[in-house]
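Appendix B. Chain record.
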Amino acid sequence: MSSSTPYPVAARELLRNSLLDAALAQLDEHRWTQVAMADIAASAGVSRQTLYKEFGSRGSLVQALVLREVDRFIDPVAESIAERAEDPSAAITAALQTFLAAAASHPLVQRILASEGTDEFLRLFTTRGSPVLRRAVQRLGQILLEGWPHVDRAEVDPFAECIVRLAISLAALPDSPTGLSAEAISSLFTPYIERILAKTGSRPKRTCGEGDGARAPSSQ
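Structure tokens predicted for this chain:
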């Protein structure tokens, strides 16, 4: 956290993260339906009233926790894309691989996958999934625009949404009947990305020996 952050803001952020960490820790040991708000508060070393004052309700706490973890998933994805901004296929493949690897070992994701249909966490990825989808699409769209700044946002956002939806689907159901993988998804979407990059003159550089880029320029 920046040293210029006002103390009240920093203190509140610390409190929120401590409470969310406590909720996540409870999920390591119990189903969410077995976790009481009082348990989370006690684990964080605060009163139940403090917990409710910060989040307002159990549902708001669940949403805040999921959105924070979405941001934490996206951060390494951003690094994977930034390192390969000149190669769309590699960037998409690495982004999906990074996300799926993190999802496979994340305790919250595993709890969601093991949940019953009435679980609050599961609903945030299905019937009440709009906040999660919006956050992930907005973050991914912004990351892509940082790597490809001249591309129209209106063309980036639909692509970002497709990737987010596919990533969530693959995390929930990793056993694909057709062997769908990060590489396969990348091969499907790469022509679209290359087309919108070419429209702006921002087409990524190709390495020597790759396609037509290996040809010597004409002397004429």
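Further analysis of this model is presented in Appendix C.
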